[in-house]
């Protein structure tokens, strides 16, 4: 047991922790958590979260607490902000291994399941963002597995912690998974009411006191804001997100499983044909895994407010299914099993080749990565493709688990260091330095649709969020001197309508990674994809 735990721990430490703080806090939701935790330490208010020095009721408290505690030890750094996401990735890796070992009773399948979680893109990307979604996925996975093992107190603890991370979804997803499993197994594994009561008691002790304290502090308005607006309406209405198609999560799940996705897509079909053709029935293990993977997918598909990261709890059971399928094919000696592995491995090698080409074509966009790191990353990805092609050609399948895990880790780290991180200060840090250098008398600083979330983290004082054109125009026409952070492409219109001729103070070149799409990589254009962000003043 020590060897797989050690190897998976080393693998997860590489993928989740190496260079964790190298990238600046991004202009995404992670900035909400990084900055709110910093303000928590600054203000000493550990009850009510604040962002940009205003109350932030949208999310529960636990990730803020954890991050603020890390800040107290090492200071408000990117590494500290992301620490608990990375730790959740490590924990999820080992938890998936343990659950797979109990469910499949196959050591190699269990190791592969853990390695998939440690090296798949979905977990890798989320472990490197200061967000509660991967810790939530850990809590949901722990809760489901503990309930299946009849560890009721652990299940209650996981539910309580998840409730403090993201709210009711931490209860809804495990319940949606467990109820059909319990119904199907009710004659062989009945669930006792007293066990559910014990789990509920632990949940209440862990998960409810902060909500009670917030209600006492802020009254029913908090309950309305959080439970109705930020949970029910986010799930059932299009207030926060535009409605997305019913198939939205299918490519997200496949993308989240990269580079293991080809094995998940290719290998199960023979088993599916056997079940559909009546040649065999699904085992209890297969029923559990399929319900564990499919029910959350259906749950989030029903939701109107779809976000890619919501689907993270699906990845551990899919990793177990994929690891099980790969291990079975390796152990079987018949030609059909080998053909399946050949097809999946060649497709994976081709995927690596495509990613290397895309990285090469888009290299001019990576303004925060060193060019030599980008070149090295492309070389590493090509080497991974060559290794997998060699395995597919020689069919030395006993080496596939180790080779695939190593190449997958190298692929993830190559994308991180070859495209996203490397050169400091990054554009948002350069802009913060410009603001500090030219803010002479505590003038108001506003941002218009750029660096909206993360600039405050790097400045440490409140900014004016100019979230629409009318506010930006009023801000520019202020009688006092103000500083405005704005894209060069948006400034001429603001100047024309407001009648204000601004003074250009400085500029930075910026790639907003949140707007990078497949089309960006297929047809990169620095003039279109890179933004010039200006710092301007309305007074000379």
Spans of at least 5 consecutive residues with low confidence? none
Structural class, from helix and strand content?
mainly alpha
Average pLDDT metric = 93
Instruction: Please give the radius of gyration in angstroms.
Output: 25 Å
**First-residue to last-residue Cα separation:** 69 Å
- Mind summarizing the main beta sheet? 5 strands, mixed
What does this structure look like?
With 540 residues, the chain is mainly alpha-helical. The chain has 3 domains: 2-327, no CATH class; 335-420; 427-537. It contains 26 helices and 7 strands. It has helices at residues 2-17, 30-43, 62-74, 78-104, 107-119, 121-127, 133-148, 152-166, 169-184, 193-207, 209-218, 220-236, 249-256, 261-266, 268-276, 284-302, 315-331, 335-361, 371-394, 400-420, 427-438, 455-459, 469-476, 491-498, 518-522, 526-529, and strands at 50-51, 54-55, 445-448, 464-465, 483-487, 503-510, 531-537. The strands form 2 sheets. It has a 5-stranded mixed beta sheet with strand order 4-3-5-7-6, sandwiched between helices. Strands 1-2 form a two-stranded antiparallel ribbon. Strand 3 (445-448), helix 22 (455-459) and strand 4 form a beta-alpha-beta unit. Helix 4 (78-104) crosses helix 17, helix 11 crosses helix 12 and helix 17 (315-331) crosses helix 18 (335-361). The longest helix has 27 residues, at 78-104. The protein is globular and about 80 Å long. 45% of the residues are buried.
